[in-house]
Amino acid sequence: IGDRLLTQLEYENKHRAQQTYQQLLQAERLRMENEYQKKSDEMTRKWLAQLDEEKVRLQKELDQNLADMERLRRKKSQDDEQFIIRRMKDECDQALARQWKLANEQINLAVKQAEDRLRALLELKYLEDKENFAQEFGAKKDAEYAEQEMKTIEKVTAELRKEHDRDIKIINKKHSQEIDELKKK
Asked: Which residue windows are coiled coil (predicted)?
């Protein structure tokens, strides 16, 4: 009876320790997910604020250039006007190129940070599962987690790129409309 009681106590202690370990892992995973969401939201807000600032600056630049063009239109010939329009288009193209570069840098940074956080979460999950199933499924789980990690990273990357492409299309459309308006004037 004593051996059976000792065995049962050992089993219950192991079971409680495993439950505590599971709870700690779950709490850490939740904390990391919350931290990732906060960082992601913060980066998105900063990126949108930078884009808005750039838009305001470009609008001021455009307004100033339009005012300059109107003043010069009264003084100069059609050839001079075409030269000014080309110069303004080049400036707008350069500004758009800067926006593209900034947007690409920010999306690449966001993707890398998302991949790093995701990789950390997956490693935490991997360690948890490896502890539970190491004897039975060790080699099989390694392959599954590597595949899961790649699929998840690809999915997150694709989603971030899709958002990035959508934002850039909006910028391009607006830029094209502004160029068309300049050409009409």
From this structure: 22-163
